């Protein structure tokens, strides 16, 4: 156990995701378990620079394991991207005698941590927490599973009205540049077509597929569209194109939006967050730095932050094939 | 009991709403209870003209009380608006020996029923079923309560991310020309401001209110906007205006959309639908026609369809006052 | 407006119910709106005697409108039932310059308030909050609607497994001595039989009904049993009796238990709590005491606490009739 | 592709689990994709013997991906355990020209399939579907993830009332002889203690742990108890023991029961079921038999049914350690 680490700071940064609170709780409780002090840092890197720290003991995180959002709040910080900003941040941490950081968030968060470590040799461990699941080095980011359940629950509701009226719905879901949410939620919700940035189906083949679907006896259809998809400029233009070229359907659009980021985390995300928080603190106590904890082959493993940022989270080709078979 | 009625047709029409299936089930089971035949008519008035009828016995509606959408499907029919179309419809009903209709839907549905009755002296009873709650003669339409729960559940999720990031969200909800959903869900979700068509707050006072809210210590805000509200041309313009005139907040928009029409109905809507279905059939059996069944002072009462269509469903002024006090 | 009331205490007592927090929030915000001080009293009458008070301003209740349970906690107090205990309580309130009480709970709570008012002429207003809906003077207590949704959601799940296996389930629900939850949730969940204390069906007729249900083609059955029902000594004995006398079904029991008291309140309960909290404070400010606020004919009205306690909350006979028709 | 297989039968057997319908749908759609006929077999092995078969095409499984229970129903069959019963079953399959079976269920189901294959050289592939997750050869059975979400949702509700009243709750969850549900849901719900059959804590240490928990400042507690746990004879005796030896808490019991088997499947379970159904059919078409499809290291892999039955699904020791740290 590293003698040098007596106080750990924990923060959340970037877009919030369900399970952030469960991860914070796990970091805090693991510190308590090892008799390490823990301070909560408010509003991410912004809060480091402002010294917005509060001591957190085991009881301070009670009742948050099932809450969406983040009790430590999140923010994006321009100033931290400058050397001056980071110097201020380092001074604040030194003043508060914080010896190491656990940063909870996505690749922007990890990049900030990595730069900070390089400049000040400050120990940093990352916990991947974003609904987009776009991080290399973990099969699941915290929040992804909950977002999938939120999305299928919404599409189930939309399906009720689609099938009552024989309508075609384009449902836009989040996911930044990757199609993980769209592909998984699309298969889960039984979507007739799934449009993801990794596969440019093309407008002609989309039309063809919708026609085939209609002929096969389907009276209503759901097309799940990843926000990063490039087939149309946006989902509304896609609707216009299909309406102009296909009169069998009454076409509607639904953009699910920010509700995908909120809500009480699923059991999977709570358990994952609990496991990752323990590993993050224990990795710091072993004297290591610059790692992300991740789920690989059902175990919590370490990946260097540099790889986590540079590596690409790839779509599951096999699941893509399953999705095609399911729409037979 | 009316000797003349031996077979009742039941149909759903207009926008679907949670509880339509519970209402269908109630009509079918009540017919079975009184040994009256019942036929389900598919796709509303369109289906009458096409003779798309199927006999329904008590067992045929099992397992649907908790399902969203409508097993009888819904549609809008242009042809039924013509005398020729209605003549065809009447012939189909006569051929099938259907003696009376229970029509489930909103004011468009009731108007169709009323015209049909006038021309052919055909017994018609209406059951109010729409999420908008915009029908005179009932304090609650079937589907309204479920839609409110869906909306507050979504806003609770949006609140998680709004408060994590200190953001201002404009959340657009359904409701056609009235603000019932916005007002009730706004109070239920603890919205900082509620914009409804019945009250034009004006852009200046909206800004003022948001500033006051910020000064009072609120770090994030939810503004619920009824789709029929006229303060901005639409919710995205509203966002632009506020962003241009207020830099304290990062502003986002979420349009909840059609998911508000779907989902498993709440217990309230299932019970209401069960009660209304019984009353609808019993009213026909008493030899009456042209009434809507409605909930008034906790009892199921009759209102003439003409009044139900012409009358106005007014916003609850007292609740508006409560909403202002809640945002103190 | 009463000049005498400058500080109001608010407390929750008895069994907790979803919406208690929304009611607390409404009382606190209404006080703030009228520039009246408000103190939260922890653990009901017990907390009065211990002087466990904390000042509550408008911001102190943020983020609780959608939370189950009660942030002020609840408890039962033996000592408050003695004159000595109440004397101590009165001294504590006087010391803290609390001028009036809003008590949130059921009839036990109201009785405590009434006795306290009688002895010390201390202004008291009650807000009915219990899942059982067993209070005279209001068609709905806060928490009842949420509990109904929780129960139908559970029974929907049990129905999945019942119908997969052709089983008969006895599902015991809460409700103390009345059958409101059982009757409403039973109709909502499409139960084949509903056993409530107000109607002793008798074991013979229950068996007969189950046989008839089986003959009519139902392969599985749900019987909802109110905890206060007297047909069997308890639900497990009921199961044994039916198993001994009917071999068509594989019989199971599910006692839903305390989860019925928890969970995020429905929109209906949040709105009701908001309306009642406003009326409670305004009634005190008008110089009145010893009233309960209640929902009667869709309006918030006053009923004397004495009547609220003595009066009986009766089962809806018409709904009982609807439930019989639904099981045709 | 095996020339011999032209028609596949699919059935569900044993205790039902959420996702069974998604698995059926996947098998049916995959058959359609490969132009193989598919017949649904009702009520498991019982239905084979009775020849209760219905042809299923791609459209016949629409709208079931999100439904709990099993549209094919499930049953336990005594007769199939006899050579005579299996002979009848084989005759029925031959008569209906069914060439292979996909059996969806748990180890009892797999054992039946294995014996049947041995006697008649009939191709059989198994899909693991049970909430208990007690099958060797897959990290997740279909239904496990949904059951975890149902359980944590229930415990979240119980927590509301526990913390309002400073109570200790024993919550009994399913899981047969293993503690997977208890351990995962216990960590997810933030339980203070988790009692599983794999670890006999002993009554003394349980008391000690509860005392320590109380001293550390916790005012309420949730103890999750696996149904297979042996520490007390049952959960009610556990309650009695703790009440007799600890007067700090008001103790209650909640047995969650059969609702754990129902409900709409989570996205995870729907996706898993879709993937497994494809693999099951493709494995048969490759001419293989007697395998179970399972999730291993995020891929769908084959395990011989014999191993799946004999092997032991072990508790995650690392998660047990995490659970201890979380209750610090």
UniProtKB/TrEMBL annotation, chains A, B, C, D:
Annotated EC: 2.7.1.11
Primary site of residence: cytoplasm
Keyword RNA-binding in annotation: no
Positions annotated as active site in the UniProt record: 132 (proton acceptor)
Residues that coordinate or bind ADP: 25-29, 159, 190-192, 218-220
Subcellular location: Cytoplasm
Residues annotated as binding Mg(2+): 107
Modulation of this protein's activity: Allosterically activated by ADP and other diphosphonucleosides, and allosterically inhibited by phosphoenolpyruvate.
Pfam families: PFK
Family matches, as HAMAP family: Phosphofructokinase_I_B1 (MF_00339)
Complexes and interactors: Homotetramer.
Protein name: ATP-dependent 6-phosphofructokinase
Originating gene: pfkA
């Amino acid at each position: 156990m590293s003698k040098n680490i007596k106080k750990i700071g924990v923060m959340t940064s970037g877009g919030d995701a369900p399970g952030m609170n469960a991860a914070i709780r796990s970091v805090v409780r693991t510190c308590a378990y090892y008799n390490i002090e823990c301070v909560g840092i408010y509003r991410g890197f912004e809060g480091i620079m402002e010294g917005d720290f509060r001591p957190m003991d085991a009881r301070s995180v009670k009742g948050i394991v099932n809450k969406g959002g983040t009790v430590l709040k999140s923010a994006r910080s321009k100033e931290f991207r400058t050397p001056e900003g980071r110097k201020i941040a380092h001074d604040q941490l030194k003043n508060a005698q914080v010896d190491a950081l656990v940063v909870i968030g996505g690749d922007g968060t990890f990049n900030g941590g990595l730069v900070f470590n390089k400049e000040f040799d400050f120990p940093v461990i990352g916990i991947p927490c974003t609904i987009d699941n776009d991080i290399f080095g973990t099969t699941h980011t915290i929040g992804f599973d909950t977002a999938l359940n939120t999305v299928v629950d919404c599409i189930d509701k939309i399906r009720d009205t689609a099938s009552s009226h024989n309508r075609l719905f384009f449902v836009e879901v989040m996911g930044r540049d990757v199609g993980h949410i769209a592909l998984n939620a699309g298969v889960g919700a039984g979507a007739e077509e799934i449009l993801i940035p990794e596969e440019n189906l093309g407008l002609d083949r989309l039309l063809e597929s919708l026609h085939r679907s209609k002929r096969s006896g389907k009276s209503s259809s759901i097309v799940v569209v990843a926000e990063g998809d490039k087939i149309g400029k946006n989902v509304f233009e896609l609707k216009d194109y299909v309406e102009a070229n296909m009169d069998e359907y009454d076409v509607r659009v639904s953009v699910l939006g920010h509700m995908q980021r909120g809500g009480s985390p699923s059991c999977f995300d709570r358990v994952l967050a609990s496991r990752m928080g323990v590993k993050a603190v224990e990795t710091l106590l072993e004297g290591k730095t610059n790692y992300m904890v991740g789920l690989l082959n059902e175990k919590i493993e370490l990946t260097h932050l540099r790889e986590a940022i540079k590596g690409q989270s790839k779509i599951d080709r096999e699941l893509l094939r399953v999705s095609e078979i399911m729409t037979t």
